[in-house]
Amino acid sequence: MTRLSTGLDDVDKQVAVLREKMAVSTREASEIEIGLKKARQTLSVSQNLVAELQDEYLRWQKQVS
After folding, report:
1. Whole-model pTM above 0.70?
2. Is the dihedral of CA 54, 60, 64, 65 positive or negative?
3. Average pLDDT over every residue of 44-63
């Protein structure tokens, strides 16, 4: 009976460790997702700016020609 109790305690400890690892991984995943969202927003704004600058460059070229 003591063996079963000890084995059960070991399993409980392993479950606690795995739950903590899962919590850490979940937090890290959330932080990565937030960073990815910000990066996508920055990329989108940058792409819009590049497109606007390209249009402006073409207008300047027409004016100079």
Report:
1. no
2. positive
3. 96
DSSP 3: H
DSSP state of 65: -
Tell me phi and psi for residue 39, to 5 degrees.
Answer: -65, -40
Residue 1, SS3 per DSSP: coil
- Distance between CA 15 and CA 51 in Å, rounded? 53
Sequence-separated (6 or more) residues with CB below 8 Å from residue 3: none
- pLDDT tens-digit series, residues 14-47: 999 999 999 999 999 999 999 999 999 999 999 9
| Token code pair at residue 13 | 């400890």
